[in-house]
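Before the break, one more example. Copy the sequence into your notebook; we will annotate it together after we see the structure.
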Amino acid sequence: MKLNKKIFFRIHSWIGIKLSILFFIVCFSGTLATLSHEMDWLFNPAIRVTPSEEHVEKNIIVKNIKQAYPEGTLEFWTGASAPYLCDIVYLKTKERRWYLFVNPYTGEVQGKTALTFQRFFRDLHYFLFIPFQIGHFTVLIFGFLLFISLGTALLFYKKWYRKLFELKLGKGKVVLFRSIHRLVGVWSVPFTILFSITGIWYFLERTNTASISEIANTSTPKLETPIDTTHFKNLAYTINYTKAVHIAKSHIPNLSVKDILPPLNVNTPIYLTGISDIPLVRNRANRVYIHPITYEVIKVQKAKESNTITWLNDIADPLHFGYWGGLITKIIWFFAGLGISGLVLTGIWISLKRKVKSEKQKKVQRMGTWKYVNWTVCAVMISFMYYFLIARYNVSIAVIICITFFIITLALFTWYIFDYKIKHIVHKELAGSI
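Here is what the structure looks like once it is written out:
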């Protein structure tokens, strides 16, 4: 049976054009998220460290934090994702939550911020700042749409695998952009498959399809309350973290502890995660739960003993964001993301130019309904983004102004390229053909 390639082209175009703005935001935010830690390093000197062979004891770091913030509450401790970065400790004070930059080699508290680049772009890509699970599923649906877009493109593009180096020059801007669109698309095939498959996996995990979430995410064990709890005020500051790390390492060979979740109260354990000699998996593949009073090991999860579902779940993040191989793979993933984001932009440009030219020739103007859908979702996203920035992160006025300036600049640039410039080019083409 002969395939009707026009149908596949229409499906491909519908996804890329009707959902273009949202598609670009999802792809581009994920692209920026791959190097968000490096953005923190670039723009915030307080997070930078000089690597050393020896790490300071965890207790020394906690002591320094306690001296600086005696009334603060340690909420989470995430180990540095690269040797040139600080550990980040989430600290809750009466005023707000802070991200403290602590030097893992000296124990010094080097600075703090209300929001990091990593947190901003991860939240944007994760749920578009839209709460109530709506944002999560809006993003996750694009895993399916990206896969369909790729599949339909390969079905209507003849012998695409032979055109890895085909770029048409000197035949006009439309032909050039169409050629770039196809060339980048062909080179992006492996990454498009990877990003779409991991995106679909996230959807299956969030919906707990086939009990994936229950199997892959072990529950936190409950503890019995000690007899005397009156002297355990601000429990997180009383924990012997050096001892807890040593115990965790003794139960998982070659473990390097990365993240620590202090106990909220005496009924919850100390939760430690990290990397071992099992490649590709995220920190949470190795878990150790320790009693906050007796330091008894309550539960251990080893990456090398994980079942298939848990292993697949633990490799999804490293593969999706490209941090499994350090800075080199993150840079490769960044440019792959730029390529896919560029596919959305070149597809929009080609389609809009064709549409504007057609409308000019017919002297009619049509406004697509989906245009308003895209902009409405963007307006909702931006509104919630400001709400989260102010209510959750308590960012400064300076940060609000910078983000607002960036949004306005991006909006004006978008209007100039995809509205004013296209109409100007079409007007010149039509005038020259008279």
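The longest strand covers residues 73-78. The chain has 14 helices and eight strands. Try to locate both features in your own notes.
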